[in-house]
Amino acid sequence: xxxxxxxxxxxxxxxxxxxxxxxxxxxxxxxxxxxxxxxxxxxxxxxxxxxxxxxxxxxxxxxxxxxxxxxxxxxxxxxxxxxxxxxxxxxxxxxxxxxxxxxxxxxxxxxxxxxxxxxxxxxxxxxxxxxxxxxxxxxxxxxxxxxxxxxxxxxxxxxxxxxxxxxxxxxxxxxxxxxxxxxxxxxxxxxxxxxxxxxxxxxxxxxxxxxxxxxxxxxxxxxxxxxxxxxxxxxxxxxxxxxxxxxxxxxxxxxxxxxxxxxxxxxxxxxxxxxxxxxxxxxxxxxxxxxxxxxxxxxxxxxxxxxxxxxx
Length: 312
Prior knowledge:
Layout: H1 4-14, H2 18-52, H3 65-76, H4 85-114, H5 123-154, H6 170-182, H7 186-216, H8 224-241, H9 243-253, H10 265-276, H11 285-309
Helix pairs in contact: 2-3, 2-4, 2-11, 4-5, 5-6, 5-7, 7-8, 7-9, 8-11, 9-10
């Protein structure tokens, strides 16, 4: 028995193995994502409807975010605000797990390479870690987004076919699209998610640290409140910056296509510019910021809390 004591002591000293840490980070990221998405999903619904709306008899269906919200509740009920939530959660679980865990792991690797702590990581290294996370997450993001978007806009198609929108299901969309169809618009998703993460994660770390210094007057590890505030502000900046890519992606992945249908990213962008002008690329910017910023604020706060509970 005595010979086993040093081994046990060593295991306790060294802490969990890298594999255990990876699984824990993935689990933390998934839980953080589910929490955030469940809270802000109605705003995301409004954002998608605004970005996908097209003129009917020369007039847009919605005059703004508040009008869109009211019309959804009036015509579809409160449950209409949560159309597509379940498949979205199914996609968000791996997506946020990958995004937050990969960013965290890459920051650790790059901090070791730079000979500094994770909290002191240079901005460009933070941007590289974020971009890597954004690249990896698209594996889960694209299928989830295309199902979510088609479910969110399905009710608007009832005008053309009475009652058809209410019959659309997540599994029906998956069967209709197939594996290849689920990755339609991947290039545009990459153009949105990689730059978003490139901008968001270094700004989040910077803002959280600065807010902690202002609130507590020291350079310690950012508090939970500082992480929430820093993540929310960084989310606003990053979300606004990549809105044009999000508009093109939404149009490409929507089941409501013009005639003739969009022939890829470039064709879609050219036709939006020609028919609607440059401001069309910023449709839904405010709702997008109002959804993305609190989503990432809540998700990063939850992730940080779980990491602190685990002592990491």
